[in-house]
Specification:
- There is one protein chain.
- The chain is of the alpha+beta class and about 230 residues long.
- The protein has one domain: 3-Layer(aba) Sandwich (Glutaredoxin).
- About 45% of the residues lie in helices and about 10% in strands.
- Strands 2-1-3-4 form a 4-stranded mixed β-sheet, sandwiched between helices.
- Helix 1 crosses helix 4, helix 3 runs antiparallel to helix 4 and helix 3 crosses helix 6.
- The longest helix has 17 residues.
Length: about 230
Amino acid sequence: MTSVRGQRQAPSPGAVDFHFDVMCPYAYQTSLWMREVRDLIGVEVRWRFFSLEEVNRAEGKKHPWERSWSYGWSMMRIGAYLRRTDMELLDRWYLAAGTALHVEGRKPHRPEVAAALLVELGLDPAIVQAAIEDPTTHNEVRADHERVTTLGAFGVPTLFFDDGQALFGPVLIDPPTGDEAIALWESVVAWLAFPHLYELKRPKQAKDLAAIATTFRPYLEARDWETVQKEAL
């Protein structure tokens, strides 16, 4: 459709698939904004998975689905198990695990902490073991992951829309709220009217890197892995 000024204008989507990895600090920040948009204007958010461990896997190393426990992958397997019952349970799990890692500096990627988080949510801690003993949770995480990597997705957050378009981002550290959250949503979905618009990026200055380091300090202190920065293709 076009606006009254003759410019291309995409209709605002009523739903979006939000692909995330619990380990990603940027995806966590963006998920807070996405929840705000959902609560304000009623956009349906369907939480989907993406594995940074897989896209950053070194040649010769095991795939995450070949390991008995694999940090982000295993956290998402717990999420997949919960999603079978209700998407809202996955929503609560991602928020709890993400807050634990990225705000509180806890280690939800360790089984005992994952179990403790389930207790805090009023859920059965045995869900951790049940999810890990069920090989089909591998299949669900892998299906979500491969759905967007076949489109060329390389990281998270990735937004996948019902018309088949996918966008990486928005990448931010101070998720807006209220009218500003809605304004950002409208700016993001405006890209859908321009399918050959591939990239718009703000260079990070020293002050930006300092702000990012401050925001991500709990995550940096809690992680048990080396972060890999995946560049856009």
